[in-house]
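hey so i finaly got around to running the thing on Checkpoint protein from Pantherophis guttatus. pasting the sequence first so u can double check i didnt mess up the copy paste, my clipboard has been acting weird all day
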Amino acid sequence: MVDWRKARGSFDAEAVAVMRFRAKITDVGCLNHFSRVISTIAKLAKTCILRLTLDKLYFILSDKVANGGVSMWCELNQMNFFDEFQMEGVSAENNEIYLELAPENLSRAFKTAQNAKTVKIKLTNKQCPCLTVAMELPSLSTSSRIVTHDIPVGVIPRKLWNDFREPSVPNFDVSIYLPVLKTMKCVVERMKNLSSSVVIEANLNGEMELKIETDLVCITTHFRDLGNPPWVSWDESQNSTHERDPMNMAEARIDIKRLLQFLVGQQVNPTKALCNIVSKRIVHFILLHEDVSLQYFIPALA
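ok and heres what it spat out for the 3d tokens, dont ask me to read them lol
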């Protein structure tokens, strides 16, 4: 994360005094879905940025890929989760809010809310800025129980917002739909005991391979007939040079623990899952749901 805390002073308290955020969930299906998304984020990042706009929420991990770090960009349409959603940013011109938080804290709060009648989230200032999550839970008596979680957050100054914009994706060599994620996870779990890295290869003929190579063993798992998304950006980038042989493999060697972390943490239940490969540079995963999209970037190893 950027080192913005040292010079912050009283910025958090002043910013929270200006900003407003409150939201409410009453539908149990929306509540459980949001809880699964938060649980996924918690497994992918110890800390992240929560960006709030009038229409969307974003969970952002912005480690520099060029320096070997992973990046994440998760986007949610707020109207598909919340019955009420009100916010006021730092100004009319910059009507957004950027908060740093530990997603595990938010995930723990929502795990206790599975049977809640309502869940309210509010930006508060209790000795420090907090996201206060208040849950109305059923009880044996006629009155409900209210359980409150105060989750500490840091407020990101406006001048640093550009550090948390959506990561750009270089023109990729291959884009391919992923196999069933549970199957892929089982394969990678077995491979991690043999190697610290894995090579992902794919081509434009719907073929993908996961491969580990050591001094003692070489193991390759083949996937066939996966299909390739018809990306316009790929067509444009390739037509300007030459047509790529669909059988040629693009490949990148990545940290196997980071790949497994991505596969184990996934609880979004995507309708589509795909992978873009920039040879020897980066592997870009995309999980798509009707109201959630999650991108995860793993840099290639040298």
